[in-house]
Amino acid sequence: MNDMISTGVAAKSLGVSRQYVLGLVRKGILKALTPGLGAHARISVAELRRFAADNDMLLTGELADQPAEHVANNMEEQE
Predict the structure, then answer these.
(1) What are the tens digits of pLDDT across the range 39-79?
(2) Rounded to the nearest 10 degrees, how much is the dihedral formed by the CA atoms of 47, 25, 33, 43?
(3) Mean pLDDT calculated for residue range 24-39
(4) CB-CB contact of 2 with 69 (8 Å)
(5) Chain centre to alpha carbon of residue 44
(6) SS3 letters for the chain?
(7) Which of 33, 37, 38, 36 is nearest to 4 (CA)?
(8) Within 13 A of 37's CA, how many CA atoms are on the CB side?
């Protein structure tokens, strides 16, 4: 599960707001995991890359060109 990132990191990588990403998750457009009650949604790097490619969006920062596990670990440390 090391390739999971927060909705905030996903939003930053897409260049959109966290609320926009949460709306995509609520609508089922962007798949996310919620570990339990009150837990924050987590999105896999692969899912975010799929979404970006399907919607002609460019990912910014490390997410654009690093392996999923490396990106998730480094970006969570910066958050």
Answers:
(1) 788 999 999 999 999 999 989 877 876 554 544 455 555 55
(2) 40
(3) 84
(4) yes
(5) 6
(6) CCCEEEHHHHHHHHCCCHHHHHHHHHCCCCCCECCCCCCCCEEEHHHHHHHHHHCCCCCCHHHHCCCHHHHHHHHHHHC
(7) 33
(8) 0
Nearest to residue 54, comparing CAs of 70, 22, 31?
31
Tell me the β-bridge partners of 23. Answer: none
| pTM score | 0.74
Identify which of 68, 44, 47, 56 has the alpha carbon closest to the alpha carbon of residue 15.
56
End-to-end CA distance of the chain: 18
